[in-house]
Amino acid sequence: MSNREETAVFAGGCFWCMVQPFDEKPGIISVRSGYTGGHVPNPTYEQVCSHTTGHTEAVKIVFNPAVISYAELVQIYWHQTDPTDAMGQFQDRGDNYRPVIFVNGPEQRKIAEESKRKLEKSGEFNQPIVTSIEDIAPFYEAEEYHQEFYKKDSARYEMEENQGRNQFKKKHWEK
What are the positions of the active site (predicted)? Predict the structure, then answer.
């Protein structure tokens, strides 16, 4: 087994709800919540929420590709988001919640674009797939209280998760 590490960065609504689905998979080394895609260095949560920095909430996943592939991570990602909503996810509204796959090189871009085309052709959704695929940008880790939120405040995490994300997943992915 390879000890090589790779990085994947995904944005899909509140980062609190994006950690757990990846964190529990074999081959995942770490999942960190943070901000990316903006123009202000080292933004705070309050700055990102003000919609003035251009950042989106995202997760940075370090993984062992000998155990879990980037393609598998992209598949997990699709099942955590509404790929038809460009201006937020579920109850989370605004550009800082937009769905983006941030690719780290041509191989990740190829895999992400191929996966998106496959999803578009699947007929699963009756609206266009609007998740963007963008080059990786500087990633700034969120404040520590945001890290592993699903473990720190499980009741609030469940409330956030259940408000729209789970209903959407049941409607579109769990048939």
Answer: 14
